[in-house]
Each structure stands twice: as C-alpha cells, then as structure tokens.
Write a structure and sequence with these properties.
Elements: H1 9-12, H2 16-54, E1 56-68, E2 71-82, H3 85-105, E3 112-113, E4 117-129, E5 132-152, H4 155-164, H5 166-170, E6 174-177, E7 181-183, H6 187-212, E8 217-225, E9 229-232, E10 243-244, E11 250-263
Parallel strand pairs: 9-10
Antiparallel strand pairs: 1-11, 2-5, 2-6, 2-7, 3-5, 4-5, 8-11, 9-11
Length: about 260
C-alpha cells in the first residue's frame, strides 16, 4: 500500500489576506505612534513657548513706619442718684457745671455733653394679708447719667486732663473716664507713600532672587495691595482684615504688596 506525499499546493491555497494582516496592523500601529510623537512634540513646544512667554516671579514686599498719634478722643460719664427725679436733675446740673469748669480750666473749649439717660431704680414692697404674702415693685430712686466727650489735636493737654480728673472724684463727682482713643490723622497719606516703598522692597527682593538664578528681572507685571496694619509700636499682632489700633499713642503702620515681575 503506497502513501501519497502531502500536497504542497494546499499551503499556498490559504487566503492571501491572512498573511498580510499582521503587516497591516504593524503599519497602523506605527502610524499611530508617529502621530503621537508628533502631537507630543507639538504640545511640548507649545508648553515651552507658554512658559517662556509667562516666565515671571512673584514676591512680597513690605514697608514699616513708626508714627505718633496727633489726635485724641476723650470720653467720660458722670452719674447721680436721688430719691426723686427733681433732686436727681438738680444734682446732675451741679455736677455738669463743675465738670465744665474743670475742662475750661484745663484750656479746653470744645467739650460736648450728650443727652441725659434716666433710669428708674426699682425696689420691692412686701405685704402680708393673713397667711398670704404679696410683693410689688415701686420706684425708690432715679439714676441719671450724662456722657461728656472731647475731640482735640492737643494730645498732651487732654492726657493731662485725664490724669487730673481724679480730683473730680475726690470732690464727690461720680465721673468714670473711658480709655482715650489715639488717632493718627495722616494715616491715609502715609499709606499711599508706603505702597510705593513696599513695591520698591518687592523689586529689590525679586532682583536678588532672579540674580541668584542667572536671570534678569523685567518690568512689573501686576501688584496686589495687602491689608494695612496699624498696631501699637513694637507689636507683632496682625489680623486678616487689617488692624487700626486706637489704644496706644505710638503706633507702627505696616503696608504689604504682592508684586509680579517678568523674567528675562
């Protein structure tokens, strides 16, 4: 029994497309890869262009200035209490005259007296009817209060008046002074000047940073003003909203600027 050799023509009978598919897939993959490389190169190039165009540095500059308040606001309240309203009004009028004379003797002529505040002082009456006890309220006295206020540029004189006001207390006047308010009236002008100083400080810092990095500093691109801090001298206290201290005569004003400079 003879064996028939395999028909080699059967192998060549396979479809021609079967052998070309891997080659086609490789071409498509290569095309996608090439497109991806080109796109990536374009993106990188555009990124470098953007970086070159927008190359900048942002620094914060500040300026500080110590100032002395040139205006003062002094406030005080005097009080009288009496069994009747007429008696309370009489005593209040007497005390007001004494306070006005005291202020005039200090060389101050612009004091202002605010309206009088009247308060009834209540007490309780208890009555017993058999085994029952009832209570009721009645007015037993009247308390009258009147504020006095002084606004002045004579800071030293008003501070001396505040110290001397203890003499009124010793004479029987129930005067309660508040803590004086100290104001620097030229703060607005100082802020404008200090913004320029803070911007110059930011420029100096940016020059040092860019010089260390081998770059040259260009022009100012933008500047953003920070909040101003007016604090007692030697104080480091700050707030996000800014501070405007009125409790101390000597103050420190701080201005902050965030500036962006172009790089070359």
């Amino acid at each position: 029994m003879s064996t028939q050799p395999p028909n080699l023509s059967d192998r060549s009978a396979a479809p021609a497309g079967a052998s070309s598919r891997p080659h086609l897939a490789g071409m498509v993959a290569g095309l996608f890869l090439a497109c991806g490389l080109v796109l990536a190169a374009m993106l990188v190039t555009r990124a470098w262009v953007r970086i070159a165009d927008a190359a900048s540095i942002t620094v914060t500059g500040s300026a500080r200035r110590n100032v002395v308040s040139d205006f003062i606001v002094w406030r005080a309240t005097f009080t009288v209490t009496a069994p009747t309203l007429i008696e309370a009004q009489r005593r209040l009028r007497e005390d007001r005259d004494r306070i006005a004379a005291f202020i005039a003797a200090a060389g101050v002529t612009n004091s202002q007296f605010a309206p009088v505040v009247i308060t009834e002082v209540l007490g309780q009456d208890r009555q017993r009817n058999g085994q029952d006890e009832t209570t009721s309220q009645r007015t037993i006295a009247y308390k009258l209060q009147q504020p006095v206020e002084i606004h002045s540029a004579q800071v030293d004189r008003i501070m001396q008046l505040d110290r001397d006001s203890v003499a009124l207390l010793e004479s029987g006047v129930q005067l309660t002074p508040a803590v004086p308010e100290f104001i620097y009236t030229r703060a607005a002008d100082a802020k404008v000047e200090m913004l320029g100083e803070a911007t110059q400080d930011a420029h100096s810092r940016a020059e040092q940073i860019s010089g260390k990095g081998g770059r040259r500093l260009g022009g100012l691109r933008s500047a953003k003003m920070g909040v101003f801090q007016i604090a007692p001298i030697y104080s480091n206290e700050t707030t996000w909203e800014g501070r405007n201290d009125t409790t101390s005569r000597d103050k420190t004003i701080t201005a902050v600027v965030s500036a962006t400079f172009l790089m070359r």
